[in-house]
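Try this one yourself first.
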């Protein structure tokens, strides 16, 4: 099989996967002005159809994300509170629109989408549950998004595909973070490797029910309204203007939705806020639908801002 066929085979393997229980090692290497750092983190990721995921970030500042099929529950790290939001996409899934995301990703059903180029670059062994598994390494470049960001991908992503199951056992991504504050781009390498994998025994269904840690309460506004879904509005009938706004949480993203009506014309904007740790940036993505446009017509733009 060529590289594209391998990616399609991997996608099909995940489409058939009824459940999975994976232990992951996340490695981030960073280099800036002669300074090098290495950060390692472990996580436990569970998946069960239809649409249920649990991701447990290990460590003192770990976070728990639970998708129960209808809602996503996410701790705030450290867990001073938690958020609840409607489940619009499944946490832990690879998104080719954002291939360099440093989120924990272990489901790759969309790995074959938006591919600009793909090539087989070699083979390697990945130790899973103490035994080596032979993998084919596929280097993939994805089509760029419509708007430039502060993060660029200087080389193809590298996927290590299990020769027997076609599942992804390791994903590597190199990134460059550009900022006027930096004399040169900050280089970061991010890898997620599967160290243990069970696809033979279904996870306990109780694990996909979120249980808040003792003393942890839903995060709220001063009025006491749970911040998972709040709304406000403004009306100016004299000038034919109306503005309605709501916000919710989706897998750790703050999602703002605004509807504007101006002299009989409608404009909707969905704005997503996300903080990336390596590099330390806040990414703001806007999805705009203009007056009279079909529901499938969208205009997107992305802005990345460095955080000190």
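Now uncover the answer:
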């Amino acid at each position: 099989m060529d590289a594209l066929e391998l990616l399609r085979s991997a996608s099909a393997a995940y489409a058939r996967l009824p459940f999975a229980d994976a232990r992951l090692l996340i490695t981030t290497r960073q280099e800036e002005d002669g300074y090098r750092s290495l950060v390692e983190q472990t996580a436990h990721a569970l998946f069960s159809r239809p649409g249920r995921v649990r991701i447990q970030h290990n460590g003192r500042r770990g976070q728990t994300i639970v998708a129960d099929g209808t809602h996503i529950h996410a701790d705030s790290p450290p867990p001073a509170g938690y958020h609840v939001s409607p489940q619009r996409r499944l946490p832990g899934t690879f998104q080719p629109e954002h291939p360099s995301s440093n989120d924990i990703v272990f489901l790759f059903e969309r790995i074959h989408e938006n591919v600009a180029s793909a090539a087989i670059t070699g083979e390697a062994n990945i130790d899973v549950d103490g035994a080596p598994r032979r993998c084919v390494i596929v280097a993939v470049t994805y089509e760029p998004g419509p708007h430039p960001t502060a993060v660029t991908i200087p080389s193809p992503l590298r996927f290590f595909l299990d020769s027997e199951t076609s599942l992804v056992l390791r994903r590597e991504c190199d990134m460059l973070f550009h900022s006027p504050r930096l004399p040169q781009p900050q280089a970061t390498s991010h890898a997620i490797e599967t160290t243990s994998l069970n696809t033979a025994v279904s996870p306990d269904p109780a694990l996909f029910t979120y249980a808040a840690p003792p003393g942890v309460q839903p995060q709220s506004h001063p009025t006491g309204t749970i911040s998972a879904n709040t709304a406000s509005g403004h009306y100016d009938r004299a000038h034919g203007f109306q503005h309605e706004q709501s916000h919710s949480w989706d897998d750790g993203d703050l999602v703002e939705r605004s509807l504007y009506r101006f002299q009989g014309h409608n404009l909707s904007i969905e704005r997503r806020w996300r903080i990336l740790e390596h590099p330390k940036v806040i990414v703001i993505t806007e999805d705009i639908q203009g007056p009279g446009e079909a529901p499938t017509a969208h205009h997107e733009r992305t802005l990345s801002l460095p955080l000190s």
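Discussion: Residues 14 and 109 are 5 Å apart (CA to CA). Residues 3-16 form the longest helix (14 residues).
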